[in-house]
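SEQUENCE AND FOLD
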Amino acid sequence: MTRFNMVLVVALCLTISAFPEQTNAQLSRNFYSKTCPNVEQTVRNVVQMKVKQTFVTIPATLRLFFHDCFVNGCDASVMIQSTPTNKAEKDHPDNVSLAGDGFDVIIKAKKALDANPLCRNKVSCADILSLATRDVVVAAGGPSYQVELGRFDGLVSTASSVEGNLPGPSDNVNKLNALFMKNNLTQEDMIALSAAHTLGFAHCSKVFNRIYNFNSTISVDPTLNTTYAKELQMACPKNVDPRIAINMDPVTPRTFDNVYFKNLQQGKGLFTSDQVLYTDVRSRPTVNAWARDSPSFNRAFVIAMTKLGRVGVKTSRNGNIRRDCGAFN
């Protein structure tokens, strides 16, 4: 084998290893340019109307997208309703807290698209969710970005497939990196996507261990800012209904921004999985950099969201266009 051929083989191997999932080959930004040219504006109009009705639409849609893509890829399988013969993804314990407004905005956007004869049954629920996610980020003041389109909807949705595939509130950096790596996402992608916690809320039950039962000798997690810990205890007293919600970001909970990272610097990460991004020396430099430089964070977030949107994409061979986002055809 000549030196040139050896170099070519090495280059090809590197290319294949860098892009292990070739299922995203059909994705393009103008996928619906001929079949449904107004798809983006139609979805955006629905999102904007829904956000006016309730802010919860923003974090709910963002979280729905993450939970969908991390389990068998971005195929809207998280939207499938359970039946007597199948317990679907949305009914796994990790998904039962997904807010209904996230599902509702996708259903409304699907209805708006299908009202146009040109678009009827042409746009996948997976693509609608991808577009709506971008639009809620923008609605919260975050960066706009072009969404790659062309996903087909998944044909399978089981609660059992969720187990072990979603990040947990107590995860450390090792576990977070392992979960994200499974989806071809780097540590930098993980940190950028974790900053979605700059929006929305969590239930008190998710932080009880950090503010009351950290371990056998210490009741409060020592990495928590002491003032913030007391605020959390006031918001979530021991006898409170565990379903009571608290803001993920105590400073700017309704704005997509880099304050998330500034909070981590001050020990104000709500979950252990947030605060470890600062306490772990491997991820701390990125936290510090993005706390200083909002544009850099926004660019990294767009890159990470684009990569996440390519995970487990279905084609016409292993997917279809659902007539009803909540049920298989």
